[in-house]
Amino acid sequence: MNQKPSNVFAAASYFVLLTGISAYVIGLWNANMLLNEKGYYFTILMYGLFSAISLQKSVRDQVDGIPVSNMYYGLSWFSTITALVLLTVGLWNADLFLSEKGFYAMSFLLSLFAAITVQKNTRDSLAKEGPVKNSAEVY
């Protein structure tokens, strides 16, 4: 049985999510790179956040017995892995200091993990309010 997350844990999750995204975006804003490079890294962040939340939802749906198509489940995994690979390839080939590469990698991973945690907390909180007839009502 899932336990409703405490308000402090939920607030900490949102704080960490905002911290990770803010650090990544502020780093991009101040970076000495072309606008198309900044766009590439920003798009990877947005794609990564969406795919990680989608993966968390599809895995959780399966655990809770809510039907999930194999195509959606596989696409969620593929998208999350693709976002990680795209960031890795981009940073590997970037003309940045190792410390900058590490900064982007860590703020990216922090953001993805926090997004998953916020999604889980939201779902756990809503699940305690009563049965949901349609999983789309939760989101």
Automatic annotation (TrEMBL):
Cellular component aspect of the GO annotation: plasma membrane
GO biological process assignments: DNA damage response
Keywords (A to Z) from UniProt: Membrane, Transmembrane, Transmembrane helix
Protein name (database record): YiaAB two helix domain-containing protein
Coiled-coil regions listed: none
Statement: the UniProt record of this protein carries the keyword S-adenosyl-L-methionine: no
Listed Pfam families: YiaAB
Domain YiaAB two helix stretches: 9-61, 72-124
Organism expressing this protein natively: Nibribacter ruber
Chain segments annotated as transmembrane: 39-59, 71-90, 102-118
Record's keyword annotation contains Transmembrane: yes
